[in-house]
């Protein structure tokens, strides 16, 4: 790719598909358990086993999808066709998952099988779209300014998708959610097709690494990728723990359940508003330094939750605003660094898909690690949902507030240790 920076209009055409891909994630990961457990009456134990199996399979397949994405991106027409197929399968799978066509007389067993089959289909389409989309953006390459601009448009539209999904799922219902998903996928893929495309053909140096491209472990042989992914995982756990526990904290510690939409809306909207600021900072200081500042701001703002109690709505709203602003750094800097790592490893225009596959694997692993750390810790410390005694609420506050800050501080130290990744 030329070093000339793509205009904002071209980056926006690429970034628009981020909206439906982020939009669909919220119902799949948040609404689905409640829908099958409460609305459809599936036993939580069996439902949990089905969800765990489907999500583990989903995470493990991402590197394989990444390998396939590299082959598709060498022939952009095939990549475009794969995106259209993804949109169709994801839309149909989503509708089938949330509106099961199973007679009531068939029993819960049939309903669980339907859930498992449609979930695997839907997750597979979602993973294909996410990995191929991320690899597409990485292959567009460019200097730090262009990479940051592409990531900013992608993540900015993604944040809007999250906000829209929360509003529709709660206010309009799953029928309208499915319809909006279909329309936004069609518009997003159409926009991607009209936007900048990766260069086709085989790079001149490809034969020297062609054998390695068939090995899923290729990205792991780049020390910079191992370092960046380790940092991404550590920082990701710090962000995923509050995401796992936020509803418990609002309901039990703050006792402000009616403010939930306002808290979450302020958080995500501030993140979206902050994206242009972080892009400018990345261009000026470099992605690693900008990311470090975002981590520091996150710790300074989020540590305030340790002093909150029942009814402290204004204070928590301010924390949501400040930590939402800091979130913009987490959304823009890592993706910018990832493309730079691919370029410096000599795998540009060759292996972006495999890097993207492992990156998506790490993203999903963050959520699993957060739940695996936070929920058992809360149970061991004596907290249960709905608790009001002082010791249980203190445990909730420490796990929700102190533990993420600890992980953020460790991430900040690693940023200093691996500051050379900013090159």
Descriptors for this entry?
Growth Hormone, Chain: A; mainly alpha; 13 helices; 2 domains; 423 residues; globular
Query: Poorly predicted ranges (pLDDT <50, ≥5 residues)?
Result: 202-213
Radius of gyration: 21 Å
SSE sequence, one letter per element: HHHHHHHHHHHHH
Number of separate helices: 13
Q: Helices and strands: which structural class?
A: mainly alpha
CATH C-level of the largest domain: Mainly Alpha
Number of domains: 2
For the termini, the CA-CA separation is 19 Å
User: At the fourth CATH level, what is the homologous superfamily of the largest domain?
Assistant: MFS general substrate transporter like domains
The CATH architecture assignment of the largest domain turns out to be Up-down Bundle
The proportion of residues in beta strands is under 5%
- CATH topology descriptor of the largest domain: Growth Hormone, Chain: A
What average pLDDT do the residues reach?
84
Q: Characterize the main sheet.
A: none
How would you characterize the overall build of this protein?
This protein is mostly helical. It has two domains: 1-198, MFS general substrate transporter like domains (Growth Hormone, Chain: A, Up-down Bundle), CATH 1.20.1250.20; 218-423, Growth Hormone, Chain: A (Up-down Bundle). 78% of the residues lie in helices and 0% in strands. It is built from 13 helices and no strands. It has helices at residues 8-15, 18-39, 44-73, 76-98, 107-140, 144-172, 174-194, 223-253, 260-285, 287-302, 313-344, 352-380, 390-417. Helix 2 packs antiparallel against helix 7, helix 4 runs antiparallel to helix 5 (107-140) and helix 8 packs parallel to helix 12 (352-380). The longest helix is centred in the N-terminal third of the chain and has 34 residues, at 107-140. It is globular, with a radius of gyration of 21 Å.
């Amino acid at each position: 790719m030329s070093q000339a920076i793509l205009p904002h209009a071209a980056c926006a055409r690429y970034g628009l598909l981020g909206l439906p891909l982020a939009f669909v994630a919220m119902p799949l990961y948040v609404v689905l358990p409640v829908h099958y457990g409460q609305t459809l009456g599936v036993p939580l134990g069996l439902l949990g086993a089905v969800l765990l199996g489907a999500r583990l399979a989903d995470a493990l397949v991402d590197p394989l999808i990444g390998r396939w994405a590299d082959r598709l991106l060498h022939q952009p027409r095939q990549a475009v066709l794969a995106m259209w197929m993804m949109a169709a399968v994801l839309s149909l799978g989503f509708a089938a998952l949330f509106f099961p066509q199973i007679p009531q007389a068939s029993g819960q067993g049939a309903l669980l099988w339907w859930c498992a089959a449609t979930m695997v289909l839907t997750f597979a389409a979602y993973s294909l779209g996410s990995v191929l989309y991320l690899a597409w953006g990485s292959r567009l390459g460019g200097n730090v300014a262009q990479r940051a601009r592409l990531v900013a448009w992608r993540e900015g539209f993604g944040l809007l998708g999250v906000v829209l999904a929360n509003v529709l799922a709660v206010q309009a219902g799953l029928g309208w959610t499915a319809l909006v998903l279909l329309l936004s996928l069609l518009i997003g893929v159409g926009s991607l097709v009209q936007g900048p495309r990766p260069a086709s053909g085989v790079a001149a140096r490809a034969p020297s690494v062609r054998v390695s491209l068939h090995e899923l472990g290729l990205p792991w042989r780049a020390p910079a990728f191992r370092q960046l992914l380790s940092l991404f995982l550590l920082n990701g756990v710090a962000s995923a723990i509050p995401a796992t526990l936020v509803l418990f904290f609002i309901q039990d510690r703050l006792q402000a359940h009616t403010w939930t939409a306002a808290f979450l809306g302020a958080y995500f909207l501030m993140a979206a508003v902050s994206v242009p600021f972080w892009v400018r900072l990345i261009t000026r200081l470099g992605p690693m330094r900008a990311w470090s500042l975002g981590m520091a701001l996150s710790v300074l703002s989020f540590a305030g939750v340790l002093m909150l109690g029942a009814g402290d709505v204004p204070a928590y709203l301010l924390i949501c605003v400040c930590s939402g602003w800091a979130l913009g750094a987490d959304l823009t800097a890592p993706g910018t660094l990832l493309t730079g790592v691919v370029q410096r490893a000599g795998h540009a225009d060759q292996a972006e898909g495999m890097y993207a596959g492992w990156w998506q694997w790490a993203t999903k692993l963050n959520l699993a690690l957060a739940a695996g750390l936070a929920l058992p810790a809360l149970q061991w410390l004596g907290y249960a949902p709905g608790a009001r005694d002082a010791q249980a609420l203190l445990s909730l506050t420490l796990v929700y507030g102190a533990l993420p800050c600890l992980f953020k501080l460790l991430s900040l130290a690693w940023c200093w240790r691996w500051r050379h990744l900013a090159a």
